[in-house]
Write a structure and sequence with these properties.
Layout: E1 11-15, H1 21-30, E2 36-40, H2 52-67, E3 73-76, H3 79-92, E4 98-100, H4 102-112, E5 117-122, H5 124-129, H6 131-139, E6 144-149, H7 153-158, H8 173-196, E7 201-205, H9 213-220, E8 225-228, H10 230-243, E9 255-259, H11 263-274, E10 281-283, H12 286-290
Parallel strand pairs: 1-2, 1-3, 2-9, 3-4, 5-6, 5-7, 7-8, 9-10
Bound molecules: D-glutamic acid.
D-glutamic acid (DGL) binds at residues 15-16, 19, 45-48, 78-80, 123, 126, 154, 206-208.
């Protein structure tokens, strides 16, 4: 067997759980010939209420795990890790091309806004880091950024309370209504201060949130454009691969999933989010990341 060329190696992607799949979906759309290795650190989700040091530690461990699978490029498909750990990752893993999710979302927000009043929702850690504000302000001084932490969304989404449920016949009518109402109430409360500021763009600053985009859209109505970074991130991945001469020519691509806790939930909800059946999934022990 001949030597595998670098361009045929997989792209490595990690998130604390299911959220990064919203990015995976767009990467598959744009780059269907790429192999992907995905790590969902489901035993330690959520990252969003952890301290900076822990978030950096987990992000380094996840990267080391993916590097053992010989990845050619890393996508940090987690805003929380992108906000705190990317500089460190770039410093430690100098040779590895790395794409994060905050910059693409911030740039899209600026392209979209007309009144320069931008709302950002994210995990507590992402909001605390002010990562979006810093990037948006760097590109445009006059922009105003209004931020709101929305920490209860991630556990609900990990539990499977996602838009797809409302279209899924396996759920009873009552279950569908309950899911929708609870997320809706929460979203109304969370978004009130941002709506009061008259924002015209809402950035989903957490890769989990596109999973409930339909409900969020309902609440902000037509006056506010919703931005999620998944599509822009996929474009950035493509650019980075082209720049490094790493685009794959494979005819068929494989996706492998690793999770650090029971794969059952991830498989069911992940398949809904990806709109594609998740088959190739393995559970690994967290201790494997710690070595
Ligand atoms: N999906 C991640 C993010 O974009 C992490 C959410 C969490 O683990 O709290 O921030």
């Amino acid at each position: 067997m001949g030597k595998i060329s670098s361009s045929e190696l997989p792209i490595g992607i990690f998130d604390s759980g299911l959220g990064g799949l919203t990015v995976v979906k767009e990467i598959i759309n744009l780059l269907p010939n790429e192999d992907i290795i995905y790590l969902g650190d489901t035993a330690r989700v959520p990252y969003g209420n952890k301290s900076k040091d822990i978030i950096i530690k987990y992000s380094i461990q996840n990267t080391k795990f993916l590097l053992k699978h010989n990845i050619k490029l890393l996508v940090v498909a987690c805003n929380t890790s992108s906000s705190y750990a990317v500089l460190k990752l770039k410093k430690i893993f100098k040779e590895l091309p790395i794409v994060e999710v905050v910059t693409p979302g911030a740039k899209t927000a600026l392209k979209t806004t007309k009144n320069y009043k931008i709302g950002v929702i994210g995990t507590k850690a992402t909001i605390r880091s002010r990562s979006y504000e810093k990037i948006i302000k760097k590109f445009c001084k006059k922009a105003k950024v209004y931020m709101q932490a929305t920490p209860l969304f991630v556990p609900l989404i990990e539990e499977g309370w996602v838009d797809e449920v409302y279209k899924n016949k396996n759920y009873t009518q009552q279950q569908r209504i309950n899911h929708k109402n609870i997320i809706k109430q929460l979203a109304i409360e969370y978004l009130k201060p941002l709506k009061n500021q008259n924002i015209d763009v809402l950035v989903l600053g957490c890769t989990h949130y596109p999973a409930i985009k339909m409900i969020l859209k309902d609440i902000v109505a037509n006056k506010v454009e919703i931005v999620d970074s998944a599509i822009e991130t996929a474009k950035e991945v493509k650019e980075m691969l082209v720049k490094n001469n790493l685009l794959s020519n494979k005819k068929t691509a494989k996706i492998k999933f690793y999770v650090t806790d029971d794969p059952h939930n991830f498989k069911i909800i992940g398949s809904m989010l990806l709109n594609k059946k998740i088959r190739n999934i393995r559970k690994i022990e967290v201790s494997m990341l710690e070595t």
